[in-house]
């Protein structure tokens, strides 16, 4: 699949990336290369292959899922630019 300059311009716009017109051909080639690589990956037969969380088979560490206070509200609030009555103070954003 090949990406045109207009498609590259649209992708840049959607990604909110400012791209100069003279850089569009290079961006289009780079995006086309990425899509070609993805097409190559689609050719790999993965039938019967178990999904992995890493390259070495090991069980994920788990902890009991319990709600706590954190035990250190003073330390946490010390990082805040403004804290009042044990909470983060933020500017009002809704009228």
UniProtKB/TrEMBL annotation:
MF annotations from Gene Ontology: asparaginyl-tRNA synthase (glutamine-hydrolyzing) activity; ATP binding; glutaminyl-tRNA synthase (glutamine-hydrolyzing) activity; transferase activity
Family per similarity comment: Belongs to the GatC family.
InterPro entries: Asp/Glu-ADT_sf_sub_c, GatC
Pfam families referenced in this protein's UniProt entry, alphabetically: GatC (PF02686)
Subunit structure: Heterotrimer of A, B and C subunits.
Superkingdom of the organism of origin: Bacteria
Native species: Paracoccus methylarcula
Its EC number(s): 6.3.5.-
Descriptive protein name: Aspartyl/glutamyl-tRNA(Asn/Gln) amidotransferase subunit C
Gene3D superfamilies in alphabetical order: Glu-tRNAGln amidotransferase C subunit, N-terminal domain
HAMAP family documented for this protein: GatC
Role, per record: Allows the formation of correctly charged Asn-tRNA(Asn) or Gln-tRNA(Gln) through the transamidation of misacylated Asp-tRNA(Asn) or Glu-tRNA(Gln) in organisms which lack either or both of asparaginyl-tRNA or glutaminyl-tRNA synthetases. The reaction takes place in the presence of glutamine and ATP through an activated phospho-Asp-tRNA(Asn) or phospho-Glu-tRNA(Gln).
BP-aspect Gene Ontology terms: glutaminyl-tRNAGln biosynthesis via transamidation; regulation of translational fidelity; translation
Catalytic activity: L-glutamyl-tRNA(Gln) + L-glutamine + ATP + H2O = L-glutaminyl-tRNA(Gln) + L-glutamate + ADP + phosphate + H(+); L-aspartyl-tRNA(Asn) + L-glutamine + ATP + H2O = L-asparaginyl-tRNA(Asn) + L-glutamate + ADP + phosphate + 2 H(+)
Keyword terms: ATP-binding, Ligase, Nucleotide-binding, Protein biosynthesis
């Amino acid at each position: 699949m090949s990406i045109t300059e207009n498609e590259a311009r649209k992708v840049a716009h959607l990604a909110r990336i400012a791209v100069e017109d003279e850089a569009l051909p290079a961006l289009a080639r780079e995006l086309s290369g990425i899509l070609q690589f993805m097409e190559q990956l689609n050719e790999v037969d993965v039938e019967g292959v178990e999904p992995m969380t890493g390259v070495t088979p090991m069980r994920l560490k788990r902890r009991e899922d319990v709600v706590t206070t954190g035990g250190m509200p003073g330390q946490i609030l010390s990082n805040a630019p403004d804290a009042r009555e044990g909470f983060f103070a933020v500017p009002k954003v809704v009228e």
